[in-house]
Design goal:
Elements lengths: L10 E4 L20 H5 L5 H21 L3 H11 L3 E4 L5 H8 L8 H10 L5
Parallel strand pairs: 1-2
Helix pairs in contact: 2-3, 2-5
Length: 122
């Protein structure tokens, strides 16, 4: 039996903001300083350029709702059927930022825009 929402399975999404990639903090010209992230492929110049269009959409939607890119990404995941994101937080500020994903909704057009933009990442 395939693991799918139709079969009653729940997807637990670990690292839903991709270790900080979806915060908007990093980009092709602004890579992380820590050795672990800097050495990882996810934070390589090529991947940072590849993810830039998605970050631009997250920023655009965030501006419309007065939200940060990571809050938009988390909100979108929360609305996905049978999906449960588990964001990490190093401190109270990050935990509060994560909580900002709650209490508001994306428009249908915004959700569709994210759906289409992320097809190649699944």
């Amino acid at each position: 039996m395939p693991a799918s929402p139709e079969n009653g399975y729940l997807s637990l999404v670990f690292s839903p903001i991709a270790q900080g990639l979806l915060t908007g903090k990093y980009g092709p010209g602004d890579r992380p300083s820590g050795l672990v992230r800097r050495a990882g492929r996810a934070f390589g110049e090529k991947n940072l350029k590849k993810i830039e269009p998605i970050l631009n959409i997250l920023r655009e939607i965030g501006e419309a709702h007065n939200k940060q890119p990571a809050q938009v990404a988390l909100n979108w995941l929360i609305t996905q059927r049978n999906t449960f994101p588990i964001p990490g937080a190093k401190n109270e500020h990050q935990a509060r930022q994560n909580a900002g994903a709650l209490g508001w909704e994306l428009t249908g057009d915004e959700a569709e825009k994210l759906e289409l933009a992320t097809l190649g990442w699944r």
